[in-house]
Amino acid sequence: MTDESEKMTAEQKNLYSRFLFIWFGQFISVIGTGLTVFSLGVYVYQQTNTASSYVFILMCVFLPPFLLKPYGGILADRYDRRLMMILGDLGATLGLLFIFFMMLKGNIQLWQIYLGIATSSVFSAFQEPAYKALITDLLPEAQYARASGLVQLASSAQYLISPFLAGILLTIIDIKFIFLIDTTTLLISSSIVIWIRNISGKVKIDQHKQNIIADLKEGMKEFSNNRGVFNLVIITMITLFFVGLLQSLFIPLLLSLTTVKTVGISQSICASGILIGSLFIGVFGSKNKYVKTLSISLFLSGIFFANLGLSKNIIFVTLAGFMFFATLPFINTSIEVLIRKNIDNRKQGRVWSLISMITYLGSIMAFAVAGFLADKIFNPLLEVDGLLAETAGFITGTGENRGIALMFIISGLMISMIALLIWQNEKIKRLEYVESQDSGIDLSFQPG
């Protein structure tokens, strides 16, 4: 019995080390993606000077995965999840190379930039569900929170490291070479997964005889039958609408306050809040009481969010942003663990894809209206002679993009109200006390 226990512990360590290799590859590729998104966002905004053109970059990033993720999740349940990650990373290079060659020809058009970004984003619809489900394959429940913290740490690199690097690189090289750097990081990431796949051997896959529609219905049934998970996902979707406004309008707001270089530094400092929170969770893990942690963290995030609109001082805005981002790992980890332990591992690929689609609907709606709200409604209201200049203007100040500041204040207060709703929701509270659907290790990776 002791030998079996020790063998199991060794197997756990082996699987965790493989997860770390895969995680490192994703960390590298996220940095490359961040370089592209930041550089293109600044480039497009400076060319057009409208928030709408910048927001459309984000729409091209998020809309294709939003539409295709359910199918990506089904494929992640039907086929080797490592293979899905490889195809996703390699496919994403196509759009980047398209933008690169169009820029080499000269006089690139906005639609060509949007097309290239959208093409790369299509493949993330197949990569991301497989990556999320692979975590459950490799790790036991006790390591879910730690893995989630590390995943968020990698995700934060897009905002922590990438803006700083992009600000430096854009002073040294032309923007078109940023896309070659991003392509290289994707090749590194896929190479690591190929290596792990080769040393791990074959994967046991349940052969599905039913069609895609039946798979979708089964995933929807698994998701909708758990009312606690359903309520949590809907609340998350609403929250992501307001966060989507921040994501789409933060750079335009900062560009009206300072230079591009300082914007990159400010965004990196803000994102270091995610780094601190993710490192804390990654090193120490997360205790129980996820619902309490979620409610308190979400409430505080709303307060810090609102503070982004209270001042034109870049130091104050950066500090508020740092505090806001520091709460996100605790929010994300709580939501992910509560959902992961309540969903059958055999259906996690399609369920995660459905959850991602529903929650991202909030972001998509924000991207769809953010530019219009900023350019046509809120910003004109807070110009020097705007209708709200003498009322709300006393709080936000008046001038360029102060309407965006007012949008941030309103959004932050709404998020804090949502936190109070979560605290009062009994169905969400019950998720805390449900045993995991699959608490042991999924030993799918057999030696070749």
Automatic annotation (TrEMBL):
<feature type="transmembrane region" description="Helical">
    <location>
        <begin position="314"/>
        <end position="339"/>
    </location>
</feature>
<dbReference type="Pfam" id="PF07690">
    <property type="entry name" value="MFS_1"/>
</dbReference>
<feature type="transmembrane region" description="Helical">
    <location>
        <begin position="263"/>
        <end position="283"/>
    </location>
</feature>
<keyword id="KW-0812">Transmembrane</keyword>
<dbReference type="InterPro" id="IPR036259">
    <property type="entry name" value="MFS_trans_sf"/>
</dbReference>
<feature type="transmembrane region" description="Helical">
    <location>
        <begin position="83"/>
        <end position="104"/>
    </location>
</feature>
<feature type="transmembrane region" description="Helical">
    <location>
        <begin position="20"/>
        <end position="45"/>
    </location>
</feature>
<feature type="transmembrane region" description="Helical">
    <location>
        <begin position="351"/>
        <end position="374"/>
    </location>
</feature>
<keyword id="KW-1003">Cell membrane</keyword>
<keyword id="KW-0813">Transport</keyword>
<feature type="transmembrane region" description="Helical">
    <location>
        <begin position="290"/>
        <end position="308"/>
    </location>
</feature>
<feature type="transmembrane region" description="Helical">
    <location>
        <begin position="51"/>
        <end position="71"/>
    </location>
</feature>
<dbReference type="InterPro" id="IPR020846">
    <property type="entry name" value="MFS_dom"/>
</dbReference>
<dbReference type="GO" id="GO:0022857">
    <property type="term" value="F:transmembrane transporter activity"/>
</dbReference>
<keyword id="KW-1133">Transmembrane helix</keyword>
<feature type="transmembrane region" description="Helical">
    <location>
        <begin position="404"/>
        <end position="423"/>
    </location>
</feature>
<keyword id="KW-0472">Membrane</keyword>
<feature type="domain" description="Major facilitator superfamily (MFS) profile">
    <location>
        <begin position="18"/>
        <end position="428"/>
    </location>
</feature>
<feature type="transmembrane region" description="Helical">
    <location>
        <begin position="229"/>
        <end position="251"/>
    </location>
</feature>
<feature type="transmembrane region" description="Helical">
    <location>
        <begin position="147"/>
        <end position="171"/>
    </location>
</feature>
<dbReference type="GO" id="GO:0005886">
    <property type="term" value="C:plasma membrane"/>
</dbReference>
<dbReference type="InterPro" id="IPR011701">
    <property type="entry name" value="MFS"/>
</dbReference>
<feature type="transmembrane region" description="Helical">
    <location>
        <begin position="177"/>
        <end position="196"/>
    </location>
</feature>
<protein>
    <submittedName>
        <fullName>Macrolide-efflux protein</fullName>
    </submittedName>
</protein>
<feature type="transmembrane region" description="Helical">
    <location>
        <begin position="110"/>
        <end position="126"/>
    </location>
</feature>
